[in-house]
Structures are given as structure tokens and as C-alpha cells.
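Just wondering, can you check both lines?
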Amino acid sequence: MAVDLLKRMAENRADFTLTFRRLCVFRRGNGRRRGSTELFADPSAYDAWAAAWRHRLEEEPAASRASAMRMANPAFIPRNHMVQAVLDAAIERQDFQPFEELLDVRVTSL
């Protein structure tokens, strides 16, 4: 099931971080929650996979699944230019404030 999703995500240029974070809140009765289909170039590719995922959810409690998925899937991934700016500040100016700010990202609406 996971390999199938990864293949569909790659083929449809779906954002991996957002897809997995949105799956954390996937509900049995509502596979379109929080716009998961919108991440796929062809939304039917997600819909077909989501039907099988709904069936899989019947086998485990939603709360434990969501919690485990949140622990394994980052909410934010810093872009290369952000990391480079942090490294430059630390190496060139001994300024660690940008590093602290990057670490202080908070999840507010995921």
C-alpha cells in the first residue's frame, strides 16, 4: 500500500510532506479532508488509493495511527537556501540567532 502511494505521488507531482501530514488527519468517512486530492495532478489517482486506505483504517484506532504518523512525518522541511543562510551566519559571523529561529518553527494549523 505504501509503495503504491509513493508511486502515485511521484507520478502526480504531489508534495510528499503535505500528503503525509494530511494523511495524519484522514478520517474513515472523508478521504478528501484538508484537500489531499488537490495535491495530485490527477486527483483520481489519490481517490483510488484512498478507497483502499479507508478499508485499512478499519483495522486500527484512528488516534494511535494519527499520533504515530505525526511523529514520523515532519510538518516542515527547511529549504536549502534557508539552511545555507543559517550556516553562513553561524560560520561567518558566529551568529546563531537564525539557527534558533529556524528551530523555533511551530505547527499552528496542520
Q: What stands out?
A: Helices lie at 2-11, 16-23, 43-57, 62-72, 80-93, 97-103. The chain has six helices and no strands. The chain has a mean pLDDT of 82.
